[in-house]
């Protein structure tokens, strides 16, 4: 039987170093995170992504029916998650590994499920290892804004997740020794 300590000492070896800067992508160009790789699709409903010449990232998105909150509208957690995902792809589209340090979301209008939506994301500024990124989600057709987001992404080296595994193992060890 495995324990949380065993899990902490058994990192997921499916990941290779290159996955962090150039991860597997769908036919629509969408970079896939851990659990979505098995499904070969973004479970949040990001269908296409591209970076234009001006550095703005564009995403075709649709809220899956499983993410319904109120009648025919998205759960707010989905809206926040997909904005985290899309804004977080901007460093990745620039071959940079980063993690979200802060995220702020404005829910402007209810987001309909199963409708084509667009997310646009851009870099406001970069300071040291911090990328300040903003974005918005709009309804298609038309351009009504449904949600806005801004946040800070912090660049990491590829040792980030191994350091986390070691930290987790230390937490488990100190919890075990202190009873
Ligand atoms: C995820 C990647 C998968 C890769 C494979 C590809 C998969 C395909 C695509 C997936 C795309 C996913 C897109 C979604 C991205 C997530 O959702 S990532 C998951 C959620 N976020 C996290 O798990 C992050 C958890 N937090 C942390 O790991 C640490 O707190 C942080 C953010 C790395 C900072 O750690 P730290 O030890 O404080 O770092 P430290 O070196 O002291 O500070 C570094 C810098 O960050 C700044 N900083 C630290 N905290 C903050 C803060 N809260 N606010 C502002 N600045 C801060 C410091 O001021 C410092 O700035 P500089 O002086 O260097 O300019």
Automatic annotation (TrEMBL):
Q: Name one GO molecular function term.
A: hydrolase activity
Name the Enzyme Commission number(s) assigned to this protein.
3.1.2.2
Q: Which domain of life is it from?
A: Bacteria
According to UniProt, the reaction catalysed is: octanoyl-CoA + H2O = octanoate + CoA + H(+); (5Z,8Z,11Z,14Z)-eicosatetraenoyl-CoA + H2O = (5Z,8Z,11Z,14Z)-eicosatetraenoate + CoA + H(+); (9Z)-octadecenoyl-CoA + H2O = (9Z)-octadecenoate + CoA + H(+); hexadecanoyl-CoA + H2O = hexadecanoate + CoA + H(+)
- What subcellular locations does the record give? Cell projection, Ruffle membrane; Cytoplasm; Membrane
The region called Disordered is annotated at 1-22
Residues forming the Thioesterase domain are: 72-142
Per UniProt, the keywords (alphabetical) are: Apoptosis, Cell membrane, Cell projection, Cytoplasm, Fatty acid metabolism, Hydrolase, Lipid metabolism, Membrane, Transit peptide
Name the top EC class: hydrolase
How does this protein lie in the membrane? Peripheral membrane protein
Q: Which GO terms describe its cellular component?
A: cytoplasm; membrane
Q: Name one GO biological process term.
A: fatty acid metabolic process
Family, according to the entry, reads as follows: Belongs to the THEM4/THEM5 thioesterase family.
Annotated protein name in UniProt = Acyl-coenzyme A thioesterase THEM4
Instruction: Record the organism.
Output: Actinomadura physcomitrii
